[in-house]
Amino acid sequence: MESEIFGYEKGAFTGGLGSNQERESDFRLICATNQNLDHAVEEGDFREDLFYRINTFPIHLPPLKQRRDDIVLLANHYLQVFAEKNRKPSAGIDDSAMELMTAHEWRGNVRELQNVLESALILAGGESICVDDLPEAVKRSGDREAEAQVEYYLDLPFKDAKERLIEGFERRYITEVLKNFKGNISRSAEHSGIDRRSLHRLLSKYHIDAHQVAK
């Protein structure tokens, strides 16, 4: 790693890194951790001088369970990646399976999501991923999500409560797909597996302006 970062002169493998002459370099250093480095510095477990050298522009990324709207975008992206990797046709995710995935806690964050998607794609054989293709831990997420939302929908009849949940998912999904494709309806329809006419009906139903979403 040292030779990759600092470089070396020819014949310097016996102990010499770098060079006797200064050379300009232009690079970007990106570091990631799941530890609290401020606390680690206070406890003496992380070098303070190194911390202030790499802490120029910190970005805090919340866990995936706090970014549920990202799950749809990430799932569709990684399905394409794993389809190419496993030499399988690109597959979609049906509504029921996606509802469970958005309800799951994802304690392993994006890595857990990747594992679930690759496994489901292999089981589905290139067809649309359904609930049966998901691991048991994700299947049980629907029960936990339903329990958490029961009180919120108690004032509604069962049919109305169910429709409200489905509408919320459809609205979020369509909005995020359109954002991903810069408001391009044709590409959004092709990616999501919804024909253009149906997509236009959903946009009208939820009063979604594709051009406005893209901004």
Description:
- The structure is a single chain.
- The protein is mainly alpha-helical and 215 residues long.
- The chain contains 12 helices and no strands.
- The chain has helices at 2-6, 37-42, 48-54, 68-85, 95-103, 109-124, 136-139, 141-153, 158-180, 185-192, 196-205, 210-214.
- α9 packs across α10.
- The longest helix is centred in the last third of the chain and has 23 residues, at 158-180.
- The protein is elongated, with a radius of gyration of 24 Å.
- It starts with a helix and ends with a helix.
Morphology call: elongated
CATH architecture of the largest domain: Orthogonal Bundle
- CATH top level label of the largest domain: Mainly Alpha
**DSSP strand count:** 0
Q: Evaluate the radius of gyration.
A: 24 Å
As for the number of domains, it is 2
Distance between the termini: 42 Å
What fold name goes in the CATH topology slot of the largest domain? Answer: Helicase, Ruva Protein, domain 3
